[in-house]
Amino acid sequence: MKTFSSREGEIVYAVQGKGPRNFLLVHNAGGSHKMMHYTMAHFSKRGKTVVPDLLGHGFSAAPPIEYTVNLFAQSLIQLCKHEKLDHIVFIGLNYGGNVGLEVAQIAPHLISHLILIEPPMFMEPWIVKVVERHIKELANPSEQWVQETVDSVLMKASAEEREIALRSYGKTPSFVKASTYKNLLLWDKKHSSQCSIPTLMIQVSQPFCVEKKVKTTFPNLQVSRVVGSGPWATLEVPTQVHAMIDRFLEF
After folding, report:
1. 121 to 94, 111, 143, 228, 247: CA distances (angstroms)
2. Local structure of 182: helix, strand or coil
3. If one looks up domain 2-249 in CATH, what number appears?
4. pLDDT digit string (tens) for 118-136?
5. How far is Cα 250 from Cα 198, in angstroms, rounded to an integer?
6. How far apart are CA 131 and CA 154, in angstroms?
7. Residue of 143, 179, 171 whose CA lies nearest to 70
8. Cβ contact 71:8 at 8 Å
9. Rounded to 10 degrees, what is the CA torsion of 114, 117, 119, 122?
10. What are the residues facing 4 on neighbouring strands?
């Protein structure tokens, strides 16, 4: 693992591979780079692959600040400059996809392709209620909260995959998760309609995102769907996800 001191705090990240492409893999809210374990192994065979722990997550610093989509995007832009990354294939898992859209708004020259894996951007009403409930629960989380959350998200994962999710989600401080969720609901996503970068949205068996709304918003979008997975598809069905991305990058 490597470290980078962004303006907002120290970011810990992994780097593997070399080749004609650059990949930036960004995990979900509350998770860590471990959620992209299989995806890093796959794409590091195709190019330089950088997988950070977002600020406040994993091994990265967790300063007492507001954790907004813009904050994460700005810190990753700094990391890309530090690692001399450009023309990036940005692969964002859930909340990581929202961060990718924010990067695309601030620094569109950085990204060649944008992959959004079940992004919580135009959320179904039921998922908004789940997020609101989580924010309240994180004020005084019970010992079983992480276990129950992971169990509610994973559909059919192995014991090893569940352990990865538990360790990733359990390591992130409660105040970071609460701030991240709160600011997700406040995020202004209007500029997403200006994103002309080739974009693939991968939905799952229980979608968070209103597909119709996304299709009418993005001018350059393709949509696909995996089978038998909750929103953490890079952990549950990585081979399906990777095959779709590989095909998307051929065009």
Report:
1. 9, 19, 29, 22, 24
2. helix
3. 3.40.50.1820
4. 998 888 888 899 999 999 9
5. 12
6. 16
7. 179
8. yes
9. 90
10. 11
In the block, tokens 């081979």 appear at 239
Pairwise CA distance, residues 58 & 171, whole Å: 6
Question: Would you list the domain boundaries of the chain?
Answer: 2-249
Strands 199-203 and 111-117, by their bridges, are parallel
3-class secondary structure, 28: coil
Q: How many residues can be counted in the chain?
A: 251
What band does 190 get if pLDDT is binned at 50, 70 and 90?
confident
According to DSSP, the β-strands at 10-16 and 21-26 are: unpaired
Q: How far apart are CA 121 and CA 102, in angstroms?
A: 11
pTM exceeds 0.85, yes or no: yes
- Please tell me whether residue 234 adopts helix, strand or coil conformation: helix
DSSP strand pairing (221-225 vs 199-203) = parallel
Query: Which tokens hold the place of 152?
Result: 């509610």
Q: Phi, psi (5° rounding) for residue 132? A: -60, -40
Q: What are the start-end ranges of the E strands in the chain?
A: 2-5, 10-16, 21-26, 47-52, 88-93, 111-117, 199-203, 221-225
